[in-house]
Amino acid sequence: MLMIGTGNKAVATAVRDAKPTVVAAYPITPQTEVVEETANYVASGELDARYIPVESEHSSMAACIGAAATGIRTFTATSSHGLVYMCEMLHMSAAARLPIVMANANRALGPGWNIGAEHSDSLSMRDTGWLQAYVSTVQEAYDLTLMAFRIAEDENVLLPVMINLDGFLLTHITQSFETVEPGDFIPEINTPHAIDIDNPGGYGTLTPSNEHFKFRRDIERGMRDSVKVIEDAQNDFAKRFGRKYGMYEEYMTGDADVLVISMGTLAKETEVAVDNLRKEGIKAGSVGIRWFRPFPDLKDVVEGREVVIIDRDYSFGYGGILANEVRSKTGCSPFSVIAGLGGQEVTYDDIAGFVKMRAANEEHWFGVDE
Amino acid sequence: MAEIPDEEFILKTTSACAGCSASLILRYVTKAAGKDTVLVVPACCTSVIQGVYPNTAMNIPVYNVAFASAAAVASGMSEAFRAVGKKTNVICFAGDGGTVDIGIQALSGALERGTDFLYICYDNEAYSNTGMQRSGATPLGASTTTTPLGKKDYKKDLDAIVQAHNPVYMATACSAYPVDLYNKVKKALSIPGPKFMHILAPCPPGWRYPSEKTIEVGKLAVQSGMWVLYERENGKLSISGASKAAMKKRIPVSEYLKVQGRFKTATEEDISVLSEHVENNIKKLEREVEGIC
User: Fold this and answer.
1) B282 in Cβ contact with B248 (< 8 Å)
2) Chain A neighbors of B45, CB-CB under 8 A
3) pLDDT (tens digit per residue) in A202-211
4) Region A244-270: what's the mean pLDDT?
5) B58 and A CB contact within 8 Å
6) A308 and A349 share one domain
7) Is residue B162 domain-resident?
8) How many domains does one find in chain A?
């Protein structure tokens, strides 16, 4: 069915169609519409779920943990301070191997108060054991949220999945999007370690270091196995519903001399910059990182090309997070651009400008280093 | 006398300290709750009591969760069970630190939302699991490793905070009165909605008394009026057996304090303040029972 709505609306609609049994959420700008719309779907009966209006984000993730532990499907959504407030529970949900799905509206952290788009919130949760995807369009917000349930719940993964969408730039813009009838695209949830009264066990009891170590190793096993699960889900999605997704989105990369690598809405803006640069005779291409965890294999696409990487985030004392991830995985020497923090406007002309001023291994803070 | 079932849900050889009243409480709580029960346990002594992976001393599922999160986890768990038509008891079994301090926000939220669960705070009046640091539940005058000269602040009135949420059922109990405790858990679990129990749990190493005196110390707490056993069903107060007697005639508070090493630092003034507090509290409860306020 063709709908018109915001990124937030698309997420809520995908949640309706994925049919979780429990939704626990706490409102925060710019995610609030997800909370309201899922509540509306529950109130109208379109989504047959228990809606828990928790008193904090720490508790929204805690409630999802308690619910998912019984073997049912759960969903929550947050942003920014809400995400970092639930940090402890992100670690616990991943280590408890609970396939919780969460949407995160990427937003800056204070002080000073700033509600604009920034990836610092989710990237500071990088090492929690959550899978992380970044979407660029309203349609993708719908499709990836739906796919997230299948991927998280796969017996070879059993890890939570975070779908990230840029605050305001995607949460609040309106585009048309096509919904699907998921049918058996998302199989019935089957959590092998769900609480079983007839087979009582201790969950998360004191665990000696050698056993703890094995559990942590298995999180990484699940993370690595998730690559195939993601690819299978995306291929099956394309076969059933006609929209194709990869671990990352390539645009005009085939003959490109210079690649711009970015995440979220910046990747779509970059595609326009690529078109314009090509009119000027600069053979540019775009790589939009869709799955940040597990991190995709970019070696082949980066090989032999100049690379410009745009980070809407920063690791103080080190550098742009995406730039350094790509550099360490591929050995490339990127021009690292820090742009768009706190919702700073970054146009396709600005991005074309980054390409023109590129210098290997240098770092440029857009609007600051002029 | 209640028929307390023989079936045990906690094995006899746990890793609890000798004379641990928390494990005694756990024994009677689980006997009252029965097999169709999940315990949600935040960081507390019970994290240790249940044993080390891959073993467990418990014969019902125990879900160990982050310190601040017990009531919120229980909230999600209860909703999930009810959504699929299961009546499984969801019981939070939390210490005083996990309840009156770090966990109070989640508890308040879960009570306010009408969560169908039983929250039990077993109160050993300090962070005993980390070696006896002060908590909001530590009484005035008691020395802990972070109040070496005795606590200068009052014990937080947890029951008044919980009562302000109007739970369908709330009660106090003490490990020294297991039948009363058992009956209250039974009653709590027979009522849908948010239930709360506050159970005094004397702690031999923390309170510094010989482990064989753990029942005696619990009885002194009640006989002196320092701990009052009561229940409230939909707000209506009724004083329980052993405390009814203490309402009429009490032993001096000093009789309770002097058997515990933790009160060695308590000043004469502390003792008189504690005694005055007991008298005021009992007068207040008497007035409520008589319908005066």
Assistant:
1) no
2) none
3) 999 999 999 9
4) 98
5) yes
6) yes
7) yes
8) 2
ipTM entry: 0.97
CA B183 – CA B193 distance, rounded (Å): 18
Confidence tier at B227 by pLDDT (50, 70, 90): very high
Residues B166-209: pLDDT tens digits?
999 999 999 999 999 999 999 999 999 999 999 999 999 999 99
Handedness of CA B148, B150, B152, B158 (dihedral sign): positive
The per-residue pLDDT for range A319-350, each reduced to its tens digit, is: 999 999 999 999 999 999 999 999 999 999 99
The pLDDT-based confidence of B292 (bands split at 50, 70, 90) is confident
Which of B221, B240, B225, B233 minimizes the C-alpha distance to B284? B225
**For residue A124, is it within any domain?**
yes
B78 confidence band (pLDDT: 50, 70, 90): very high
CB contact under 8 A, B75 and A24: yes
The label of the residue with tokens 């108060």 reads A113
Flag if B75 and A59 touch (Cβ within 8 Å): yes
Q: Which residues pair with A361 in a beta bridge?
A: none
pLDDT tens per residue, range B55-75: 999 999 999 999 999 999 999
Q: Helix, strand or coil for residue A173?
A: coil
* H-only helix segments in A69-177: 80-85, 87-95, 120-123, 138-153
Please state, in angstroms and as integers, the Cα–Cα distance from residue B206 to each residue in A1, B21, B144, following that order.
65, 12, 8
- The answer to whether the CB of B91 falls within 8 A of the CB of B168 is no
Average pLDDT of the segment spanning A257-280: 98
Considering the domain boundaries, does residue A331 fall inside one? Answer: yes
> Are residue A318 and residue A171 in the same domain, yes or no?
no
Q: Which residues of A touch B73 (CB under 8 A)?
A: 62-63, 65-66, 69
Measure A101 CA to nearest chain B CA, in Å. 15
The pLDDT of residue B1: 55
Domain holding B160, by residue range, is 21-289
Arithmetic mean of pLDDT, A282-286 = 98
Residue A26 has pLDDT above 70, yes or no: yes
pLDDT (average), residues A151-176 = 98
Q: Is residue B8 part of a domain?
A: no
Tokens of B38: 């999940």
Establish if A190 belongs to a structural domain: no
Mean pLDDT for the stretch of residues B264-271? 95
Residue B4 lies in a domain: no
Instruction: Give me the CATH number covering residue A85.
Output: 3.40.50.970
For the record, the structure tokens of A139 come out as: 């349609």
Q: Where in chain B does DSSP place strands (E)?
A: 37-41, 62-64, 89-95, 117-123, 169-174, 194-200, 230-233, 236-239
Residue B1 lies in a domain: no
The answer to whether residues A131 and A163 touch, using CB atoms and an 8 Å cutoff, is no
Is there a single domain that holds both residue A228 and residue A293? Answer: no
Note the pLDDT of residue A358.
98
Q: Does B61 touch chain A (CB under 8 A)?
A: yes
Give me the pLDDT at residue A368, please. Answer: 94
- Report the residue from B58, B88, B112 with minimal CB separation from A197: B88
User: What average pLDDT does chain A have?
Assistant: 98
CATH of residue A300: 3.40.50.920
Contact B76, A62 (CB under 8 A): yes
Pair A104, A237 in one domain:
yes
Number of domains in chain B: 1
**Contacts with A353 (C-beta within 8 Å, 6 or more apart), sequence order:** none
Q: Are residues A12 and A63 in the same domain?
A: yes
Domain that holds residue A119: 2-182+208-241
A200 inside domain: no
Q: Residue B234: which CATH number?
A: 3.40.50.970
A293 and A214 co-located in one domain: no
